[in-house]
Write a structure and sequence with these properties.
The protein is mainly α and 112 residues long. It is 79% helix and 0% strand.
């Protein structure tokens, strides 16, 4: 996932540099008033999004498989914990039920 994020950031930075160069050279329009920086960043975001979508498809699929595997492991761990808790709870309830049952009384004079 970190690799995908860094690659996505790299594509954005490359687009930012290209857009900044185009705006600085006058080939792309400047923003209105003091909004030039915002314009450059926004234009770089708009250009980098479809490029990232196409270029990073395989890396995105790899990252999603890793996430799915991690979630499945976490679900399995939670299920194992729940099973252990259920078994411990059942055992405790069985002990409590057994302790609550009345014991047969012994005849007088006999000790156990």
């Amino acid at each position: 996932m970190l690799r995908y994020t860094l690659m996505r950031l790299g594509i954005f930075v490359a687009c930012l540099v290209v857009v900044w160069g185009l705006v600085y050279s006058g080939l792309a329009p400047r923003g209105l008033g003091d909004s030039n920086g915002m314009w450059v960043v926004l234009l770089a975001l708009v250009i980098s999004a479809p490029i990232s979508f196409v270029v990073l498809r395989k890396e995105r699929d790899r990252a999603s498989v890793g996430i799915v595997n991690r979630v499945d492991r976490m679900k399995a761990g939670l299920e194992a914990d729940r099973t252990q808790e259920d078994a411990a709870d059942d055992a405790a309830r069985a002990r409590a039920a057994k302790a609550a049952q009345p014991r047969p009384s012994s005849p007088q004079g006999q000790t156990s």
